[in-house]
Amino acid sequence: MTVNDEDKVIQDFVAEGAILLGGGRAILMQLAHPDIARAIARHSAFNEHPERRLIHTLCYVYAVLAGTAEQRAWVIERVNAEHRPVRGSRNGRQAAYSARDPRLQLWVAATLYDSAHTLAQRVLPPLSPAAEESIYRFYHRLGSALQMPEQNWPESRSAFEEYLRATTHSLQVSQQARNLAQQLFAAQQAPWWIRVVMPTVRAVTIETLPPALTLGFGLRSTRATQRRASACLAGARWATRWLPRRIRRIPLFLSLRYLHRTYRKDNGEQ
User: Which of 187, 181, 248 has its CA nearest to residue 41?
Assistant: First the structure.
């Protein structure tokens, strides 16, 4: 596979709007880490404004994917600047935490890759082994761009699966994380379009989350969640095969337009 072929494979995968259905899953996997849950509870208002976290995450991912070199550097610096004050000292039995902790950076990047990969297996046509490897390397880039040491990323997909199993098994979902998850799915202060889709996001999350974490969050698979998730994923499979690419890539186009506008404004351009 040539460099151009690899870039196209990565862009075709990451630009598919359907894999964004794994967003709720990725967030809950992150919250399952107690240090991340404490950091979000103390330093983030994502439960009040989940759309902002979504927009910022998409802008970061799509900037690394398709932004200019200047935009990528600008977005990475903004994310790092937001992470610098996210830290806490040891408090009783609770260990200190920092958003710049390489362990946490690795886990966040891992949840993004695993959730995208899990949803892709449900809704996209099968990928070749070469495409799978290219996509895996792209998510390595996402993590290392946020100052995760490059050597921390598992060297192969099989090593990644071992890391994922071991880390998931070691996590104990805290009550703080459960409260955050409940607030997220309630979406009481979110825009109307977030409130409309949240029951479906919740169902897809329940039906795709690792069972141990589903149990830890006090969530339960029911006939209702199974039917809702199944209908959503079936619709996504249809969309990825029959809708025009420009429709499926609307999140990419909107995020890049927002990125371009915000970048110009922040740099004093008209």
Answer: 181
Phi, psi (rounded to 5 degrees) for 71:
-65, -40
218: left (phi over 0), alpha (psi -120 to 50) or beta: left
* Separation CA 80–CA 75 (nearest Å): 9
Which amino acid appears at position 201 of this protein? V
Residue from 66, 10, 15 nearest 249 by CA: 15
Question: What's the CA gap between 42 and 232, in Å, rounded?
Answer: 33
Q: Give φ, ψ of 245 to 5 degrees.
A: -60, -40
The yes-or-no verdict on residue 188 having pLDDT over 70 is yes
Give the separation between CA 66 and CA 223, rounded to whole angstroms: 40
Return the number of other C-beta atoms located less than 10 Å from residue 132's C-beta. Answer: 16
Domains identified in the chain, total number: 1
Output the six-digit token pair for 230: 């199944």
Residues 227-252 pLDDT 10s: 999 999 999 999 999 999 999 999 99
Q: Map tokens 């075709």 to a residue.
A: 12
Which range of residues forms the domain containing residue 148?
Answer: 3-266
> Does residue 255 have a pLDDT over 60?
yes
Residue 88 φ/ψ, nearest 5 degrees: -145, 150
Do 21 and 201 meet the contact criterion of CB atoms below 8 Å apart? yes
User: For the packed helices 102-123 and 192-208, what is the interaxial angle rounded to 10 degrees?
Assistant: 90
**DSSP structure class, residue 84:** T
State the Cα–Cα distance between residues 126 and 131, nearest whole angstrom: 10
- pTM of this structure: 0.92
Q: What share of the chain is helix, strand, coil (3-state, %, to 5)?
A: 75, 0, 25
**Residue 215 identity (one-letter amino acid):** L
pLDDT value, residue 98: 63
